Amino acid sequence: MYSILLEYPYFCGDLDYTINQPNRTMAATKIKSALISVYSKEGLEPIIRELEALGIQLYSTGGTQKFIENLGVQVNAVENLTAYPSILDGRVKTLHPKVFGGLLARREEGHLAELEEYAIPELDLVIVDLYPFEETLASTTDEATIIEKIDIGGISLIRAAAKNYKDVVVVPSKDEYETILNLLKEKQGYTDIADRKALARNAFKVSSNYDVAIFNYFDADSEDLAFKQSIHESSVLRYGENPHQQGVFYGNFAALFDKLNGKPISYNNLVDIDAAVAIMAEFKNAEPTFAVLKHTNTCGIATRSTILEAWQAALAGDNISAFGGILICNKPIDLVTAEEIHKLFYEVLIAPDFEEDALALLVQKKKRVLLKIKDFHVRKKTFKSLLNGVVEQDNDLVTEKKDDLKVATRKAPTKEEALDLLFANKCVKHLKSNTIVLVKNNQLIGMGCGQTSRVDALKQAITKAKQFGFSLHGAVMASDAFFPFPDCVEIAHKAGITAIIQPGGSIKDQESIDYCNNNDLAMLTTGIRHFKH
């Protein structure tokens, strides 16, 4: 092997060369042969023409070989090299020592001697574009079609060439066609170690992403697969949680909502919308229900016989926090309800539909976001980035029904109290812990959330209820976790609460139960904790 020192990248036949530059020396080698096996032919012709002009020997298979031959360019069939035809419906074409030997051989005496012994040509460049696995997933659910788009030979060629980047150039996808074309033109078929290493890096990125997509297909149910596919879509947000933070949404927002009006959706809007959909999913099949959220927490929610009455009752729960909030309901918005909502400043209104005259009124305020929701659907899994990684967990999709509840006290709740307890229990799971919810007549009348003690959460809930003029006599209380002491039960009783629902599970459960029995209170236990951090 020869080398010469040059100040600039002039090229001298087949000689390797070295470019002296400040702080680094780069060895360059000439491409003498190329193996091309691609799915996408778009953009390939200029590369073929350049390779031909540089006198680089070409090897290829199947459709790619025919493409090259149709250009009038001489190409060697891989099956002539291996003495094996393409077999098993094209599943096996390049998987042969005469191909992979030429890719993996180090250009040094021992390996080169073996290549000569077994008549294996050196392969200096590999151009591959894999079968479009993810595109196939997006276009069909037919398992046989999907499986056939799992590339084996191509991914093996990419990994082998990338591993041997000190001697081999790898082009791992059509996204790199322009890169290799520019290299061929600028350096006349030579590449240096930096060029090859950069392409190898991209090759392993392509390989890993491809394997992850296939793993996700086998690992996920249809919902998880749809979600993992959707995160390949992204949109830049105005900013993140605060103006000095950047934000990007990875997902397909339009698959869930039709945006009918308003300014671009912000990071905070997205977080609040997610919380709003989660709470309303609990009531999607219920009577007309309206909810008001602020900073992901429900500050008002009610079920009534009409959507207007539900809106009025939800707003009454906390008409101060409702200012600038997120509104969501489970029924179409009619004109009479729209006229009342129109009086309030809000960020986002979500509904399954809007009557024509109601929409005409609401769109008069151009910045207010109106979303027509396609389905109150909550994913089975949730993800969160933390530390130097990501955690995944099942979403809290458990919603207790009447038959799931255990009467822990001598006194059972009345029919009305039982309905309110179930309503309260749906609400409590969607508020930040520690959480207490107070409900009366299917209306949230007080809540305390995000507190460091359950007593503080209860005191906050009582204060809010009184602030907005609600009587707590005959109201019910829900807690997202057990009572470690009977203090909350005692405070609630003195405020007028008559029935309580909680998970149970404390070693001192009996103390809270005893207090209820001694003071004519009803208590239900669920056995399910609903912490929300």
Describe this protein with a few key phrases.
disordered N terminus, 19 helices, single chain, alpha/beta, 6-stranded mixed beta sheet, 3 domains, Cytidine Deaminase, domain 2, Rossmann fold
User: By CATH's scheme, which homologous superfamily of the largest domain applies?
Assistant: Methylglyoxal synthase-like domain
| Overall residue-averaged pLDDT value | 87
Tally of domains:
3
Determine the number of helices (DSSP H or I, runs of at least 4 residues): 19
Largest sheet data: 6 strands, mixed
Beta-strand residue percentage: 15-25%
CATH architecture of the largest domain: 3-Layer(aba) Sandwich
CATH class call of the largest domain:
Alpha Beta
Helix content: 25-40%
CATH-defined fold name of the largest domain: Rossmann fold
Give the N-to-C terminal Cα separation: 64 Å
Low-confidence runs of at least 5 consecutive residues: 1-25
Structure overview:
- This protein has 533 residues and is an alpha/beta fold.
- It has three domains: 5-219, Rossmann fold (3-Layer(aba) Sandwich); 260-373, Cytidine Deaminase, domain 2, CATH 3.40.140; 402-525, AICAR transformylase, duplication domain (Cytidine Deaminase, domain 2, 3-Layer(aba) Sandwich).
- Helices cover 37% and strands 21% of the residues.
- The protein contains 19 helices and 25 strands.
- The chain has a six-stranded mixed sheet with strand order 12-17-16-15-13-14. A six-stranded mixed sheet has the order 20-25-24-23-21-22, sandwiched between helices.
- β16, α15 (356-362) and β17 form a beta-alpha-beta unit.
- α8 (153-163) runs antiparallel to α10 (193-219), α10 (193-219) packs antiparallel against α11 (222-230) and α17 (454-467) runs parallel beside α18 (487-495).
- The longest helix has 27 residues, at 193-219.
- It is elongated and about 95 Å long.
- The model is unreliable at 1-25 (pLDDT under 50).
